[in-house]
């Protein structure tokens, strides 16, 4: 690829160099620095007539006429190449406008998300149980008389054990909504979540040999939600036979920053604790979960037909239709890098390193589509210019370089027209309207220049075909490169076909074919004429008489 770009750069530099030399020669002649070829009268010896003869090279530097240079085919292609490169300037200006509008659109999306709800991430639930460790140390004290005595010093430390569930089942139903601000629209969702599972009685004694007391009555259950401002409703926590209300905060911000918790008292005689809860939250962009349980089963359904599954693991089952999608994950605890139970104060694990979920994906955003369209701009301008050059060969009429520039500016206006229309109507109708407008304008301009209705109609058909092919490339996301490469090869073949005879007529006129002469026959004719009797031109007496 670097070699191709290097060759292209050399060709461009050569074209610029040739064009610069021609411009310098033009101004040199205009300023009188270089004199053109002049004819001086001279009298021939044979006839005595005066004839015009060209000055010799010693009389001044001779140049071919600039008019001939400007009308040559090579010059036309060089000028077209230079003008095509110059058209990158307005194309870049249009692209900067598209970029600014895209940034404004993203800022509006962020503003809507900040008020409705950002991307949501569900962490938990987790069970936290505080306990006290008792440490007894023996110290030896010496009094002023040198007597030693041993004193036991007792210290206590408060610890918190975090316990993850044995099972977690999450059912999530995402309902898509559209929010509008000005001319911009944003996709958001509301999620109905249902969580259930069970914990087993944790073996807190295995965490430390210095446990003095386990505070079963001070335990709590924490659930993390990344954007708590978007919580609409949360049911009470159903814990075995208890119903517990949630309170703000997780009380373990070192692990889960945002969320809520429910204080509870654990019956240490039980070996299994069932839990369940329901909540409704708003969000945008996507929904993610973190598999905290030993076995995590998640089912997500939505009415949005364009999901983009992301995260550390993809769903084991999924179904996507025009009416929405359904996905299912089943994740064991061996997939993550943290245990089922540990001490919060002494052990640190990144519980957010493993997550999975889905983005409500918009197939191709408006501004990315227009940006992709602009990337084909220089190709379209060059193809249109080559078409007009081929027309010039057919009608023996030259377009002015200014006319080429006006046509290029009209082609760049297509992208600005597409942007302004697509912000108010759907992309397909905006594309058709902008393409039709520019094609008609250029076709009418071509008719006024070449005065040929058929050729102007051919220009319209060509532009319409190019815009149709461009639209097809935009829709073929996976095969755009393959189709685009095939298109370039096809166009190159067409150009090669129409230019296959260029220069043949000129070579034939400059080097006329001389018929071969049989020298042997000429010599034989000459010899025979020399030996034949000559005709007597003298008058005989008989004739005189």
TrEMBL record:
Pfam families: CreD. Residues 517-530 have a biased composition (Polar residues). Residues 507-545 are annotated as: Disordered. Residues 531-545 have a biased composition (Basic and acidic residues). Keywords: Membrane, Transmembrane, Transmembrane helix. The keyword Transmembrane helix applies. GO terms for cellular component: plasma membrane. The chain crosses the membrane at residues 6-28, 73-91, 376-395, 402-422, 428-447, 456-474, 480-499. The keyword RNA-binding does not apply. This is Cell envelope integrity protein CreD. It comes from Leucothrix pacifica.
